[in-house]
Amino acid sequence: MKQFWKSMLRSPSGVIGLIILVLAISVAVFGPMLFPNSPWRMVQRPFLPPFTLSTVPLGTDALGRDVFAGMIFGARVSLLVGLVSTLVALVVGVPIGAMAGYFGGKTDDALMRFTEFFQTIPSFALAIVLVAILQPSIYSIVASIAVVSWPPVARLVRGEVLSLRTREYVQAAVVTGQSNTWIILREILPNALSPVIVLASLMVATAILLESSLAFLGLGDPNLISWGYMVGAGRTVIRQAWWITVFPGVAILISVLGLNLIGEGLNDALNPRLSREGR
Amino acid sequence: MGGVINAVIQPEPPGLMLAQIQNGPTQMVSGNIFEGLLRYSPKLEPLPELAESWSASEDAKTYTFKLRKGVTWHDGKPFTSADVLFSIEMLKQTHARARNNLAQVDKVEAPDDYTVVFTLKQPFGPFLGIFEVGSMPMVPKHLYEGTDWKTNAYNNAPIGTGPFMFKEWQKGSFIRLVKNPNYYEKGKPYIDEIYWQIIPDAAARSVAYETGKVDVLPGGSVENFDVPRLSKLKDTCVTGAGWEFFSPLAWLWLNNRQGPLADKRVRQAIMYAIDRDFAKDVIWNGLGKVATGPSASTIKYYTSDVPKYPYDPAKAKALLKEAGYKGEKIRLLPLAYGETWQRWGEAVKQNLQDVGMNIETIATDVAGGNQKIGDWDYDIAFTYLYQYGDPALGVGRNYVSSAIAKGQVFNNVEGYSNPEIDKLFADGAVATPDSKRKEIYEKAQKILVEDVPVAWMLELQFPTIMRCKVKNLITTGIGVNDGFKDAWLDK
């Protein structure tokens, strides 16, 4: 573990990514305490440009709502959706991939055809359809993002398991008569984890983008403010008021960039060959 | 004189046969092709169109219309009273509102080619208000009699008596109308051609105007926040006129049947809680007018002498407390008609939350929203409806208990039921003379505003934006839907 942090902190992209993520998370956790007012409240005259009033530093939107407050509350929704939907996708994808890779044969065929069924449908289109059918709400959004993002996890885990199950220590475990579950959980998965962790960090970024795109199209939870919603609502007035779209857009950009950098850092840190050679 | 006008039509109409399709865009394009017996001034007085003159009998039960002579259909056949009789028969089957409007008509006769006589079952005050082209378009008997009306080939290339003739329709691109050279008003129309441009994206419609591709943006074809910007462009004229006949009024359906909203005090609290001036100034960019009650101020027998509901959150809170409201969840359905309505939903939600109501917004599309409202599966829902100039035609339908019918969207979906109101609207429709009707409808307005069956928001205004060189586009209370027969281009 110590070794991991050491190599993680040695990679500059990992450090920058970590800083961004920690900042974003602290904004999401503590921000709303500093801004007890609802971000939906009309506080000032509409279309107030940024940096004119210290109470609304980033200006106001078409209804006179504080853009800064929206950014802070939006961080909470974006990060929450990103993390939770990735977790759900992992919970679905990892077991399916592990079983397919470990048991092989007909199980593998069945599970992989099922996975491919989801992979052949363009993921964003499927997410739109699911949210539209289920009615937009935070739950349906998390569920639909999870549904479209688990197949790559399953494929990745299957590949790792396929290569690991022929290793000698796994075969030794089989010979000693340990149960399949035990072998998968204790012998194989821990060793297949590093690529999954890298993938997960990128999935959080993708999930944030997906949620933003859904909200941009008006399929966000109507009761929660999110960055994508702010961009979508501000898009039509972009010629009169650039700041309504630009600030949340930049927020999306930075947080997705941060997560990608973390992914890169993790990759460096978790891949022993790369980290020891110092590239 | 002469020239071409490019106008936006939004959305693309499903068809142009006005007697069978009454969507907004159909009315707007086909108002040039078809005509009614009458048109209406901005004050809603009847003006001659296909009928040259009209008179009512002493007992107000017989109306005689003298038709204009020398009128021909676009294919050259003469227009006569036989066409009027046929049109009425057809409309009774194809046009729900016309059927309703004609319910008091006992019989229609044509003593000669240019006279039509309507005999009513009883005097019907708003009778002279039902002859506008969208409500009662005249269709050619010789092309439709004995055919299947729904599949008649002329539905795709309609033949009317109007100032412009249908020429071509490139789906998804434009509808082209050309001047009727044999129009009965000599010299008119002044314009040679009209192109109705079909542009699906709101921002692209604004750009099309700015770049000069179109000259006329009829009401509602661009987003409200673009209106001030476009209005300031060079050589641009804006008018809010031409909607007097329709008088669109926006309100919130309040489900009177169940939950906290069954209590009158909660409904009154909603009126006090919502900042309607904010909605007008910010969301509608100052367009329109705060509504005082069930009638828009532009229609007959309107009175402002009703209980008032200014923006007063403190009073709203007190009323909620008095009614014993304890934070029960209330569902709000915004109207899925685009940005403006979405923002309005958010503002109203915030207003209601500020006085302590627990509001949950339900996101739907237009069809889903209509279904929920029709099934009475809502607590608060946005809507706007046309009023057609007379309380008997456009107001009563939303408040009388006989108009409670599950599955339909534009009747009394709030479930308000008050025998006194039922009687007032029943009496008002058939009372004579006018002063009696006025008295009845003023009383009805007072009772309704006190009871708050729905929460009236704004009298909407849909400004028409056009180049200043387009003159006389809007001359009547029917506005752009009345056709371009008086319009001309300043060179």
UniProtKB/TrEMBL annotation, chain A:
PROSITE patterns, A to Z: ABC_TM1
BP term (GO), one: transmembrane transport
Subcellular location: Cell membrane
Domain ABC transmembrane type-1: 75-263
GO cellular component: plasma membrane
Annotated signal peptide: none
Alphabetically ordered keywords of this record: Cell membrane, Membrane, Peptide transport, Protein transport, Transmembrane, Transmembrane helix, Transport
Entry keyword Transmembrane: yes
InterPro entries: BP-dependent_transpt_permease (IPR050366), MetI-like (IPR000515), MetI-like_sf (IPR035906), OppC_N (IPR025966)
Residue intervals passing through the bilayer: 12-35, 79-103, 124-150, 196-220, 241-262
Membrane topology: Multi-pass membrane protein
A matching Pfam family: BPD_transp_1
Family the entry assigns: Belongs to the binding-protein-dependent transport system permease family.
Protein's recorded name: ABC transporter permease
Source organism: Bradyrhizobium betae
Upper classification of the organism: Bacteria, Pseudomonadati, Pseudomonadota, Alphaproteobacteria, Hyphomicrobiales
